[in-house]
Design a protein that fits this description.
Structural class: mainly alpha
Radius of gyration: 19 Å
Strand content: under 5%
Number of domains: 2
Distance between the termini: 47 Å
Number of strands: 0
């Protein structure tokens, strides 16, 4: 009986190892680059609020780029004065692509729409370090499903993996 348990544990470990290897080879963020390649290259994963790819979350770069993008700005109006000097993504087309990859993930209040005056302001406030009620006062949509500061903070943290 002991041998069977040992064999089962070995098989389980082997199977879990295979799953880990498989998931590392998969493009988990749908940006056309496998998780392994992102790790090796040190690139910033899609689905991250580090829009300019400089390895930092910053209100005056990433937050402003997202807000401008939500307002529909493009070209120079999108990036002028808002891209970090050490950014990996600097052109308007690269920034637009990074914002588009976020898609509905930046619907912070969960009402089914990405809106500059709700989601965009929440992102900007959070990146400026505001927490608690001051983070959400006056900017949660009336049809929001995420209405508490804790819920909003949890959503924001999900978009800010360690860089």
């Amino acid at each position: 009986m002991c041998l069977k348990k040992y064999q089962l544990k070995l098989f389980s470990l082997f199977f879990l190892s295979l799953l880990s290897l498989f998931s590392f080879a998969v493009d988990t963020d749908n940006d056309g680059v496998s998780a392994y390649d992102e790790f090796i290259e040190g690139t910033i994963p899609a689905g991250s609020l580090d829009v300019d790819g400089n390895g930092q979350y910053d209100a005056l770069t990433d937050g402003l780029l997202l807000l401008r993008g939500m307002f529909g700005l493009s070209e120079g109006a999108l990036i002028s004065g808002a891209v970090a000097s050490d950014a990996a993504y600097t052109s308007s087309s690269e920034i637009v692509s990074r914002i588009e990859m976020l898609g509905d993930l930046v619907d912070i209040d969960g009402n089914g729409r990405v809106d500059a005056l709700t989601d965009g302001l929440i992102i900007l406030r959070y990146l400026f370090g505001l927490r608690g009620d001051v983070l959400i006062n006056g900017v949660i949509a009336s049809d929001a499903t995420i209405t508490s500061a804790d819920g909003v903070s949890a959503k924001m943290e999900s978009l800010m993996p360690a860089l």
